[in-house]
Amino acid sequence: MAEYPPFAVTVDLVVLTVRADELAVLLVRRGVPPYEGAWALPGGFVGADEDLPDAAVRELAEETGLPEPAGHLEQLGTYGRPGRDPRGRVVTVAWLALLPDLPAPVAGTDAAAAEWVPVAGLGRRRLAFDHDRILADGLERARAKLEYTPLATAFCPAEFTVAQLRTVYETVWGTHLDPRNFHRKVTGTPGFVTPVGRSTEGDRGRPAQLFRRGPATLLHPPMLRQQR
Amino acid sequence: MAEYPPFAVTVDLVVLTVRADELAVLLVRRGVPPYEGAWALPGGFVGADEDLPDAAVRELAEETGLPEPAGHLEQLGTYGRPGRDPRGRVVTVAWLALLPDLPAPVAGTDAAAAEWVPVAGLGRRRLAFDHDRILADGLERARAKLEYTPLATAFCPAEFTVAQLRTVYETVWGTHLDPRNFHRKVTGTPGFVTPVGRSTEGDRGRPAQLFRRGPATLLHPPMLRQQR
DNA sequence: CAAATAGTGTCTCTGAGACAGTATGAG
DNA sequence: CTCATACTGTCTCAGAGACACTATTTG
Questions:
Q1: Helix (H) or strand (E) holding B56
Q2: Does B52 contact chain A (CB < 8 Å)?
Q3: Most CB atoms within 10 A, among A49, B13, B71, B123?
Q4: In terms of C-beta distances under 8 Å and separation of at least 24 residues, what long-range contacts does A53-59 make, across chains too?
C-alpha cells in the first residue's frame, strides 16, 4: 500500500428538518482550524476500522444528541477536489439525513456551537470548505426524492395527519398544494400511509385521522411538484 | 494529518453499453493480485493530485481506448467497508458510464484482458472485491434513470432513429414497448430529441428520420417502465 | 350560531395504452 | 405486386387539477 497516495476520509452530513414551517439545516460553528469560526456541515474523520455508514450514523448521533435517528439517512455523494481542505488530501463522503423536528442540537467535539438554520435565510452566508456545494446538492436531492418516494414522512413524527404531511411538501418545495386533492392523492396511493385508527384532539376544526408511514418505498404514481 | 487514519482511494467504473440487442458491462480480468485471474470492474487508484472525476475519465479512456467518451458519466456511490480489499483500507468511488456501442476494449495496465459481458449471462459469475454489489447498484441506477431523463440517448450514436432508441429501452428494461405509442411519446416530449432532417437509407421498410439528443435534462412527463 | 379544519363528490382536461389505418421504401 | 418498417389518427380509461359540498369539532 505504501506505493499509493495516502488520503484522509471524512463524512459530512446534510441534516434537514422542517420546523416552524421552514426547511432548516443543521450547521456547526467550527471551533478549531481550518476555517475556525466559520459555519460548516457537521462531520468528522472516518475511523481506521469503521464502515462509512457507521461513521455517518455516529456523527449524526453525536451532533443531534439522539441515539436512534427516527428519520432517513442515505449517501449523497463524494467530494475530493485537491485543495478542498488546507490540511491535505481529504476526500469526504457526504450523507443526507431527513429528520422530524428535534430538540435543540448539541455541539460536538470540534464544534463551538450547533444550530438549525433556515435554508431560506442562508442567503450568501458562505460555509467552510466546499460545503456550499454539498448543501446545494443535498437540497436538490431532497426536493427531487419527495416526488417519487414516501420520504416526506421522514420529516414527520411517527404519527401524523395528512395536513402535517402536506405542510412538509409545501415547505420543502416552496409551493402551495390543494388540501383536498392532496388528501385524495395521499390516501389513495397504495402503501404511502396507513391509518392508525385514532384522531387528533383539541385543535380547532374537525379532528384529523392519524397515519403512520406505509410500506411503500416508491410512489406510483409520483407526487407532482409543479402546480401546472 | 498524521493523527488521522490513512486510506487509499480508488475509482471503479460500471461501464454499460447496448450491443447486439443485449445490455453489456465492461469487465477486466485481473492480471495482478489480489483476486488475480478474477473478473472485476475496471478501475484504479486516484492520483495524489487528481480530482475524482478526472480519475474516472482517465480510467475510462484507458480501458476503452477512446480519448473522448461520447456518452454519459456520473458518480454512482462510494464503498468503503473495512476488509473489502485485502491490501488494506481502500475506499472506492464508483462511477456509472453509459456509452454507445464501441470497438473492442483494450486491456489496461493491470488487466490481462477486457471484454464486454452481457449482463443477462453473468448468472452466478462472481466478481472481485465487492464489485457484484457495485454492478447491481449501477444497473438499478441506469434502469431508473431511463425513466425520467433522456439518458437512453447516451447508448445511441450521435444520430439515431426512434426505433434504435426504443431498442435501448427494451434492452435495458427487458420489456416490450409499443412502437407507435413510443414514437408519439418521444417526438412529443419537448427537448427529448431534435430531428436532423435526414433519413436512413438502404434498410428494409420505409426510411426513418434521424434524430440527435435534445436539450432536455429531465423528461416531463417521464417514460413509463411498466406496461401495466 | 359562526369559524375553522377534515374529508368527499364531480367535472374537465391531459396523457397512456390499444390498435386501425396510411406512407414509403426494398425485392 | 408483397413485405417490412415508419408514422398518424382515434378511442378509452386513469389520474391531475379545480372547486362545490358535506362533516365535525371549538368558541
A1: helix B52-64
A2: yes
A3: B13
A4: A55/A11, A56/A11, A56/A13, A56/A93, A56/A95, A56/A97, A59/A11, A59/A13, A59/A108
Distance from CA of A17 to the nearest CA of B (A): 24
Q: Which of B211, B185, B215, B188 is nearest to B198 (CA)?
A: B211
Contacts of B87 in chain A (CB under 8 A): 1
Residue of A135, A131, A120 whose CA lies nearest to A18: A120
Count CA atoms within 13 Å of residue A179 on its CB side: 6
| B47, B79, B226: residue with CB nearest A5 | B47
What pLDDT tens digit does each residue of chain B (228 aa) get?
557 999 999 999 999 999 999 999 999 999 999 999 999 999 999 999 999 999 999 999 988 776 666 899 999 999 999 999 999 999 999 999 999 987 766 666 666 688 999 999 887 789 999 999 999 999 999 999 999 999 999 999 999 999 999 999 999 999 999 999 999 999 999 999 999 999 998 889 999 999 999 999 999 889 998 643
Pairing of strands A209-213, A193-199: antiparallel
Superfamily of domain B8-133: Nucleoside Triphosphate Pyrophosphohydrolase (3.90.79.10)
In terms of CATH architecture, what is B151-213?
Orthogonal Bundle (1.10)
Domain boundaries in chain A? Answer: 8-133, 151-213
- Which among A6, A51, A78 has the least Cβ separation from residue B93? A78
Q: Which residue of A has its CA nearest to B75?
A: A77
